[in-house]
Amino acid sequence: MHNILEDFNQQFGSSLKNTGLEGWVNELKKANDEFVKLTHERRDKQQVLVSGRSKSARKQVDDATKN
User: Fold this and answer.
1) Model-level pTM?
2) In 1-67, where does DSSP find H-type helix?
3) What confidence tier does 32 reach under pLDDT thresholds 50, 70, 90?
4) How many helical (H) and strand (E) elements, i.e. helices and strands, does the chain have?
């Protein structure tokens, strides 16, 4: 989506202003930026959870093999 919006602005920038669509494209870009931000935050949170589960499982395996 980011690349599409960038291409759209580069190819039709002056036309967007003349037709009044510039505001629409800017709002779409803001919405996409927010989506990307939230997606990255969710990914980062999930990585922490997986990492925590892996550490817990590793400890259990280590404890089991010591005995």
Assistant:
1) 0.62
2) 2-19, 22-66
3) very high
4) 2, 0
